[in-house]
Design brief:
Elements: E1 5-8, H1 14-23, E2 25-28, H2 37-44, E3 49-52, H3 60-65, E4 71-74, H4 84-89, E5 93-95, H5 102-117, H6 120-128, E6 149-153, H7 157-170, E7 173-177, H8 184-190, E8 192-194, H9 197-203, E9 206-209, H10 223-228, E10 234-237, H11 246-254, E11 260-263, H12 274-277, E12 282-284, H13 293-313, H14 323-327
Parallel strand pairs: 1-2, 1-3, 3-4, 4-5, 6-7, 6-9, 7-8, 9-10, 10-11, 11-12
Helix pairs in contact: 1-13, 5-7
The chain binds 2-keto-D-gluconic acid.
């Protein structure tokens, strides 16, 4: 029996490709050039499955042009690159890569918060530019993390990881807002209190965004929300571009309506809004929150395991649209 054919849409660990090759006929984009939609469609012709990353959009147009496709396994926990309804309608299974990146991403959220509040990159640029000539009492004086109030917007697994780090590691008071409230045991574990979004924005010293992107969460933080925040507050976005109105944020940072921001994700990335590049009170990183080597390997391995399990026995590990499995 011939092996199923799969496309690996972006470069990935050679050992993961080797594992996939044991089960599939693999076409792999090891050159790592991002394919435009037309090329993705062309490469997907005759493929039974795809290994995708967050930048590979699978929508109704792609699905209509690739009738043989049965599964797309995302090497990401977020799956806003999938039109899930269209995939379900087309009978194409979607899987994501949850859990394996939770702690690494929460670590990074905290690192970005620390760098932002304590002005680490801004001060490093100053030093590298040869501008450090003397000590001053208020030179790069930022805001404290310990003992401050941490507001977590989006309290899924990564949000909980950030809350625990704040509460247990830094003695922070943790407040959170989420579509649904956590049960009492989980709230106690995270030492977190549920508040409205408005109260969170008004009272937190540091706001960390960890909510999934959907049309409903588009511009969750815009000019009106930024206006609610304390002038001394920091904002960290490790969720998705589009959750923050980047132009409104750049204006708020420029006018010092909030103190600073740390951003790992951007609207239209890898493009970054030029107004953000022009302000100094923002820490900018290129979507690397999950980027520790062991975690990236675990994410890729989980995506591969989903493909293998699906074609073996139709029991993928982390399916998103299980309705598809019922009709297969
Ligand atoms: C990925 C992410 O690096 O998992 C996610 O949702 O945003 C990141 O961990 C990115 O999406 C590449 O697939």
């Amino acid at each position: 029996m011939s092996k199923p054919k799969i496309l690996v849409a972006r470069a990935v660990f050679p050992e993961v490709i080797a594992r996939l090759e044991q089960h599939f006929e693999v076409e792999a984009n090891q050159a790592d050039d991002s394919w435009p939609k037309a090329e993705l469609i062309a490469r997907l012709q005759g493929k039974d499955g795809a290994f995708t990353t967050g930048g590979d959009r699978i929508d109704a147009e792609v699905l209509a042009a690739c009738p043989q496709l049965k599964i797309c396994a995302n090497m990401a926990v977020g799956y806003n690159n999938f039109d899930l309804d269209a995939m379900t309608a087309a009978g194409v299974l979607a899987t994501n890569a949850p859990d394996v990146l939770t702690e690494t991403t929460a670590d990074f959220g905290f690192a970005l918060l620390m760098a932002t509040a304590r002005r680490i990159t801004e001060s490093e640029h100053y030093l590298r530019a040869g501008r450090w000539t003397k000590w001053s009492y208020d030179m790069f004086a930022g805001s404290d993390i310990h003992g401050s109030t941490l507001g977590v917007l989006g309290m899924g697994r990564i949000g909980q990881g950030i809350a625990k780090r704040g509460a247990h590691g830094f003695g922070m008071k943790v407040i959170y807002h989420n579509r649904s409230r956590l049960d009492a045991a989980l709230e106690a574990e995270c030492k977190a209190s549920y508040v409205s979004k408005e109260e969170l924005l008004k009272t937190a010293d540091h706001v960390v965004l960890v909510l999934p992107y959907s049309p409903a969460s588009h511009h969750t933080i815009g000019a009106a929300e930024l206006a609610l925040m304390k002038p001394s507050a920091t904002l960290v976005n490790i969720a998705r571009g589009g959750i923050v109105d980047d132009a409104a944020l750049a204006a708020a940072l420029r006018d010092k309506r909030i103190a600073a921001a740390g951003l790992d994700v951007f609207e239209g990335e890898p493009m970054v809004h030029p107004d953000l590049l022009a302000v100094s009170n923002v820490v900018l990183t290129p979507h690397i929150a999950s980027a520790s080597l062991p975690t990236r390997l675990a994410m890729a391995s989980l995506a591969a395991a989903n493909l293998i399990a699906f074609f073996n026995d139709k029991r993928p590990l982390t399916p998103l649209n299980t309705a598809v499995l019922a009709i297969k």
